Amino acid sequence: MVRYASAETAAVVGTDFVKLVRANGAPPRRVAAHVLRNAAAPIVALFSIRVLGALLLGVYLVEAALGMPGFGLVTLEAIRDRDAAVVLAATLITSLLGVLGTLAEDAVTATLDPRVGSE
């Protein structure tokens, strides 16, 4: 994640508008604000995808390994017992969480970069 953020920031630092901000005599803090605002959108997208995936995988792994009752254990038992209704409900809930997470990520991206919301 840090490498990706560093690469995105380095790509933005070399752009013309950053050179223009520096040429106009802006302080380093102002230049950093311009760079971070433009590099933040791809970083937020990657972070949201990884967080959603890690949380979902963590639910299944922790509950299965520790035998804790919860969403993951119920889903795994339904798969083992071939209970189609519970498996479909779990799939629907997981998909809904993914869609809501993507919607939240799009809202954050539009807030950080107004150009994205106008497309």
Number of domains: 1
Q: Secondary-structure element sequence? A: HHHHHH
Spans of at least 5 consecutive residues whose pLDDT stays below 50 are none
Report how far apart the termini are: 27 Å
**Structural class, judged by helices and strands?**
mainly alpha
Please describe the topology of this protein.
Blueprint: H1 2-13, H2 16-23, H3 28-66, H4 71-81, H5 84-112, H6 114-117
Structure description:
The protein is mainly α and 119 residues long. It has one domain. The chain has six helices and no strands. The chain has helices at residues 2-13, 16-23, 28-66, 71-81, 84-112, 114-117. α1 runs antiparallel to α3 (28-66) and α3 (28-66) packs across α4 (71-81). It is elongated, with a radius of gyration of 21 Å. The chain starts with a helix and ends with a helix. The mean pLDDT is 85.
Brief rundown of the structure:
The protein has 119 residues and is mainly α.
Which terms summarize this structure?
ABC transporter permease subunit, MetI-like, mainly alpha
